[in-house]
């Protein structure tokens, strides 16, 4: 059976693949977009709590992690938050800024998927879903892809099958296998934007499950001032998800529980409320049970007035640099994204084309570019998808 011919085949109808296919289709290319899931854009649908945090107006390259921190610059500069906002506006999708530059739909993430499918339709993209992608081969500059029991062929192929986070949504490591098949290297994939688990001495904090507090969390050189949430397994919340991308096994995560308290606040409290206990002083600023646990750990019983300034200063220092030693993460099953992936050294930062294989492209989360929490990962999917779509 001879293969049906296209100008380009895009594998993966997620954020990046849809954007890439629509862009190339609207440039007059005959594009086939394939996905093994039963519907396109499934991760978009569950993103942002169902409202899709589709971009972040503060997008800049230093908010992305990659073995090459410069790689993302070109694509991000050529398709910016203003571009996706203009598209969203064109489709009449109401949106709002929630916090820290994060833009969400007022209505539903479904609107974003519908928008991308309409853009694909405008470009005449042939979207096919719900069959397994089988062998991918290349002969005489022509890629052939088996989809279900049919063969499709094109001179250009785009890998847009994402990373392995949330396998229950159809996520796989397929992109890496395919990349390796064509000689591309893969930076070790790890779960990122993921809750951390606590064991050992820290296990006591798991009893605070459900309690949140605004903190500054640090891992390595990265620091994020947002909410942390205690869970029955350990730590979560935006501040923790952010530092999880920078955290390495064996390293500590430090938390400043009172990032806004002025230096010397505890000795000041001793002067103004000498009869108060440490627990009461903490309880004035933190959720009650958290204050109790921290005070128990600091083991300074009695009234503040009876404690030396030195002891209070030490307690203040500890509260500002509380050290947790996570024993792991909740893994790919709970990770919003995958850090690592197809090594950028093998790709053109202008077009996303493989340097060693003409007309093979890789885009989106499959590539070793990972954004912060807050709309950055979709912005990378749009930008890298657009860059490849322009080049196909
Ligand atoms: P994506 O994973 O979207 O798409 C890959 C596609 O390839 C899928 O459709 C999949 O079915 C298909 N595929 C996989 N293996 C295949 C195979 N073997 N054969 C054929 N097809 C295959 N980001 C953000 O910026 N704002 C947000 O609000 C959120 N929220 C969020 C919530 C949750 C719960 C998760 C898990 C993730 C987020 N993210 C996010 C991250 C964001 O969803 C992610 O970065 C993008 O979806 C990546 O887009 P891609 O197109 O690269 O991959």
Walk me through what this model shows:
The protein starts with a strand and ends with a helix. Strand 9 (133-139) and strand 10 (142-147) form a beta hairpin. The chain has 392 residues and is α+β, with helices and mostly antiparallel strands. Strands 19-18-15-16-17-14-20 form a seven-stranded antiparallel sheet. A five-stranded parallel sheet has the order 8-3-2-12-22, sandwiched between helices. It has a four-stranded mixed sheet with strand order 1-11-10-9, with no helix packed on it. Helix 8 crosses helix 11 (309-320). The chain has helices at residues 15-26, 42-46, 73-78, 81-90, 110-122, 174-181, 238-244, 265-272, 278-283, 288-298, 309-320, 376-391; strands spanning 4-5, 8-11, 31-35, 53-56, 64-65, 95-97, 102-105, 126-129, 133-139, 142-147, 150-154, 156-159, 186-192, 196-197, 212-219, 222-230, 234-236, 253-256, 322-324, 328-329, 337-342, 360-362, 370-371. It folds into two domains: 4-190 and 336-391, FAD/NAD(P)-binding domain, CATH 3.50.50; 196-329, Translation factors (Elongation Factor Tu (Ef-tu), domain 3, Beta Barrel), CATH 2.40.30.10. The structure holds dihydroflavine-adenine dinucleotide. Residues 11-17, 35-37, 42-43, 46-48, 52-53, 133, 160-162, 165-166, 170-172, 174, 336-337, 364-366, 375-378, 381 line the site of dihydroflavine-adenine dinucleotide (FDA).
